[in-house]
Amino acid sequence: MDYVDRLRSEWARTVPEIDTSPAEVVGRVSRIASLITAHIDEALTGSGLTRGELDLLSALRRAGRPMRASEVSTVTQSSGAAITKRTDALDRAGLIHRAVPDRDRRGVLLSLTDEGRATVDRLTPVRTAVERDALADLDPDEAAQLAALLSRVLTRIDRHT
Fold first, then answer.
1. Exposure winner among 4, 63, 65, 133, fewest CB in 10 A?
2. Mean of the pLDDT values across residues 104-118?
3. CB 117 within 8 A of CB 62
4. Topology of domain 51-125, CATH
């Protein structure tokens, strides 16, 4: 019996008319995401970076080009205030560079420094090891099936797809 089974059992006992069947999937996805996030935070201890800062650096690395702070906010699903705080810390650490475009002064362009790129490349395997470990009990076909099913759900609800 896992966390969601216990949750559903408690609801069935106290308020049996509530249909908690969506928790079979949504509750588990949420719980898994929360636990993986905590494990990634733990794995990053000592790196000098938070998960949010690594997310920002990773967004820039994947884009392969400078990005507006607002784009990074959208991609990482972080508030503008969070992006500003993270860019301040990452700029001070020498991991990103901020520039205001001459033609359009409305936004700040963020780009990785060489050290920032090296940092992402060093820490991404740390993050993916946590994710790989979470899926260790699935064989490759099961993992592919789960990924396909979750992709269908994500495509339905993600505004940015």
1. 65
2. 88
3. no
4. Arc Repressor Mutant, subunit A (1.10.10)
